[in-house]
Write a structure and sequence with these properties.
Blueprint (H helix, E strand, L loop, with lengths): L1 E5 L10 H7 L4 E6 L13 E2 L2 E2 L3 H15 L2 E6 L11 H17 L4 E4 L2 H10 L4 E4 L8 H6 L6 E3 L8 H14 L2 E5 L11 H9 L1 H5 L11 H5 L29 E4 L7 H10 L15 H4 L2 E3 L8 H7 L9 H9 E3 L8
Parallel strand pairs: 1-2, 1-10, 2-5, 5-6, 6-7, 7-8, 8-9, 9-10
Antiparallel strand pairs: 3-4, 11-12
């Protein structure tokens, strides 16, 4: 399996993603990245609360050049869920074209991943050599959904909630192959499946620069999951997410040429990349996810090595009616361990 990993600017005491990708180059074939403080699916990279990292562009461009020298494909993220009043504006189209043209002249650009049909159409019309990819945040999980925008996108991220729907994946793969489209999967999302607040939260993140400079309500977490998992009776839902264990990646070979690893905001991108490239991990599986809710479980962890051998088979064969099933709750009793017992399996 090949992997597409997310770029983050390292602090002075942190390991560079360039070094990590270099170590795992045989399996990491693509790096995705935002452009400085343009809205995207995560926090702005170069500005926070008015403070600007003026060296960010130079460091980003140097790292992109290093990735290119390794032969790694480059994927520009323009995947905010909202662009406000500029969403259909000429100014947004001009900005997108100027950024893509700059990157084309600097290091070359292979892919633009976006949630916006306007941005998709703009890039496709102006830069036909660049692959245009539908973001996972578009939640496209049906053939109809792909057909509607087939003229705009060359490839699609599968709606993450269907990562364990083998029949649906086969149907989508068949359509994509016949239509000359690509299909990819996000492997390590820690988000709630079918989250009721995803649209709200995605829009808030798109405007995070503004929100960060506003006097906001205290004692309120805009991400529903953090409050949801405060109650221990909800912990079985952690096992009902879309994430795929590193040990189960091989089941997807032949269906997806590449998997996306969420590492843009992860505290330890090396841990994530190493685990998936080696297809094994000994530790708290929640620590591989983004977001990772591990702190809410303390002093417990979810021991990855303790999962039953038939975990993947059960997950793919079940009817996905989680409210009427107790399987994940029973597995949680097996894999939930005090942190001190990590790795000490019965």
């Amino acid at each position: 399996m090949k992997y597409c990993v997310g770029y983050q600017l390292p602090d002075d005491d942190e390991e560079s993603l360039v070094d990590i990708v270099g170590e795992f180059r045989e399996q990491v074939d693509e790096v995705y990245f935002p452009w400085l403080d343009m809205p995207s699916g995560r926090s702005p990279m170069a500005a926070r609360n008015g403070a600007v990292d003026w060296e960010a562009q130079a460091r980003l461009e140097a790292d992109l050049a290093a990735f290119r020298n390794m032969g790694v494909r480059l994927d520009l993220l323009l995947n905010a869920s909202c662009y406000g009043g500029r969403a259909v504006s000429r100014s947004l189209a001009n900005l997108v074209c100027s950024v893509v043209a700059h990157l084309q002249g600097l290091v070359g650009l292979d892919v633009v991943t976006t949630t916006s049909p306007v941005i998709a159409g703009t890039v496709k019309a102006t830069f036909p050599e660049v692959e245009v990819r539908a973001s996972v945040n578009m939640r496209i999980g049906t053939v109809k959904g792909m057909q509607y925008v087939a003229h705009l996108f060359d490839s699609f991220y599968l709606q993450r909630e269907y990562n364990y729907h083998v029949q649906r994946i086969g149907e989508l793969k068949g359509w994509c192959d016949s239509a000359g489209k690509g299909l990819l999967l996000l492997a390590n999302s820690g988000c709630l499946n079918f989250c009721s607040a995803q649209t709200f939260h995605d829009n808030l993140v798109a405007h995070e620069k503004e929100a960060d400079e506003t006097r906001n309500l205290r004692d309120l977490h805009p991400a529903l999951c953090w409050e949801f998992y405060l109650r221990r009776e909800n912990w079985p839902v952690l096992l009902q997410g879309s994430w795929v264990r590193p040990e189960d990646v091989h089941h997807y070979e032949g269906l997806f040429p590449s998997m996306k690893l969420a590492t843009r905001m992860h505290a330890n991108p090396r841990r994530v990349i190493e685990a998936y490239c080696r297809e094994t991990f000994d530790g708290n599986v929640i620590d591989l996810l983004e977001p990772g809710h591990g702190p809410l479980l303390a002093p417990f962890i979810i021991e990855n090595a303790a999962f039953p051998d038939d975990w993947f088979a059960k997950r793919t064969a079940c009817d996905k009616r989680c409210h009427a099933c107790g399987y994940c709750a029973s597995v949680l009793e097996t894999v939930l361990r005090p942190a001190a017992r990590a790795g000490k399996l019965a």
